[in-house]
Amino acid sequence: MSSFARNIMDLLDRIEYRRCDTGEDLEAVFRLRYEAFHAHGLLDTIVEQKLVDRLDETPNCYCFGVFMEGELVSTVRLHHLTRDIPEAPTMTVFGDRLLPRLARSETFIDPSRLAVDPKLTPAMRGLPYVTLRLAVIANTFFDATACISMIREEHTAFYNRIFGSVQVGEPRLYPPFTMPIYFYESNCARNMAPTLERFPFFRSTAMERRMLFARAPRGELAPLTILPTAKYLSHAA
Question: Which runs of E-coded beta strand occur in 49-191?
Fold first, then answer.
């Protein structure tokens, strides 16, 4: 294992994932999104200091908080797009490219609203990997055709290098953000195995995948927190 991968594994030991559907956790996620995007000059001032939209309430939405020693440090929102439920951020900008593919029964995972606490030190630069690990797990759990991302130009090299993502079409505007947004796609059949081989911290057990994404039966509570399992698979290998 490379020293980089080992460092991310060590960071995972300090992490808990939590699905944030209601209450104070969800409000904290909305505030963290705003703080992160506003601090980087990507969002104009909002009086409520929260970043929330109608897509947070769709039935195919999974909103996660990443906690370290009990404190919320990052967050990401995932949408599972299918022909029956095609709602997701990318659809609002690049729907013309996705609708024909959804009609052919292709499915997608759309990670959005990735935000890391801007007050954290540079030593926590591994948090985007820890947070985007949730998107990798979702692609496996839902057996998606591809992971699609709307990203800023300066992040395109990262997504290409880590996930094998490629650009689809020309960039477009995505209000309320203040810069053009690029549409990138990573085909799961082609890229998943090499990604897991190069970056073992993205691996997960079937139990972790179910705990993160299976909907709890009516009347049952979802688990409060879920611990990453990549290290167990690494030790077994």
Answer: 61-68, 71-81, 108-116, 146-151, 166-167, 172-173, 180-187
The answer to whether residues 91 and 98 touch, using CB atoms and an 8 Å cutoff, is yes
Instruction: Please give the class, per CATH, of domain 3-231.
Output: alpha beta
Rg over CA atoms, the chain: 17
Distance CA 100, CA 106 (A): 9
Please tell me the number of Cα atoms within 13 Å of 179 on its side-chain side. Answer: 13
Please list the ranges in the chain whose pLDDT falls under 70. Answer: 42-43, 47, 123, 216-223, 234-237
Distances (CA, A) of 52 to 27, 29, 30, 41, 46: 9, 9, 6, 17, 11
CA distance 135 to 212: 11
Q: What pLDDT is stored for residue 54 in this prediction?
A: 94
Please check whether residue 145 is in contact with residue 187, taking contact to mean a CB–CB distance below 8 angstroms.
yes
Q: What is the pLDDT of residue 23?
A: 83
The rounded distance, in Å, linking the Cα atoms of 18 and 71 is 11
Q: Residue with structure tokens 């995948």?
A: 209
